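Dear support,

I submitted the protein below through the web form. The confirmation email said the job was done, but the results page showed an empty box. After a refresh the structure appeared. I'm attaching both so you can tell me whether what I see now is the final result or a partial one.
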Amino acid sequence: MDFQLNDFQRALESSVREFVEREVIPVASEFEHKDEYPHPLVDRMKELGYFGAVIPEENGGAGMDALGFAVLTEELARGWMSLTGVIGSHSMVAWMVARFGSDDQKRDWLPKLASGEMRTGIGITESGGGSDVAALRTTARREGNEYVVNGSKMFVTNSEHATHFGVMVRTNTSADKPHRGISCLMMDRELGGLQVSRHLDKLGYKGIRTGELVFEECRAPAPCLVGEENRGFQQLMATLELGRIQVAARALGLHRACFEASVKYAQQRHTMGKPIAEHQAVQLKLADMATSLDAARQLTYRAAAMKDSGERCDIEAGMAKLFATDAAQRASELAIHIHGGYGYIKELPIERYYRDAILLQVGEGANDIQRVVIARRLVEKYPAD
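What the results page shows now:
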């Protein structure tokens, strides 16, 4: 496959890089250390059209393909990984609406999602389910022209600032297989019975709010159903292919930030009469960081190219997410070792890279779960004679 960026993607890469250099990097540490929501940066992202990244142009969006979205994500993550969360789950819900929504939903919602007037989080994970989506317990029973929702969702990004949530619910409690009774509802946060019960204090991923949603006899209008009733699991799996590509791209940006900071510092810091970049122990670390970064990018771009061609890419997206996030976490460790004591203090962003990298291994399907899913699909793909 040819993974070369086209002219649009190169222009996108350049413009996002300029935004990050001029406006994100100078203020990211201040927002992060205060755990303060970056309203000025989010407003600029609206102006730049990032909220409409994956929304078709005819609906007011930028019409980016998966590879373009990965490029946007990598550049943002290089400056501050939390910003990719602001548009991450939002873009997943927007993509689901664009792909599976009704004509009325596309007409009414997509332009507002593209402008950032509507902003979304996605409710998938539950406290007792983790990565087992098919085991979700939040229910939605149909009563007339409404769904009555009961249950809860954990680890919902954008919980404080989203206007709506794409919520995965069980609409058929008697389905012969658990995944066959799941649907997606687009729920307004102002609905009675929907409460953001608490905000979660995290190790990293600061500045962006992550919370828990609780539903108690919450009545949602039936037209908020996205796609077909009881087909939400299939819709979600297609969406998560893009989601895992985006998480892999977040890891690329964070990994690149670690490498660029380390290779620069290694040439500036002197010990024993020479730059530490001339010491073999440091050279080995730099070589490993650069090699794993290139390998992670190839896996991510391959998955994105397959997604753009319409091919099923759950294995490839899972591989990209698994490898890229593990590589980013290792790169953040190596960056701390190269920087020594300075890598451990908050004057430099190195310690932030370490804290943020761990989330990428856990979120969007924990990496050990990715390994299991990849292995199962490989057995299906390559059956024994």
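Response: this is the final, complete result; the empty box was a page-load delay. The chain has three domains: 7-115, 120-230, 233-381.
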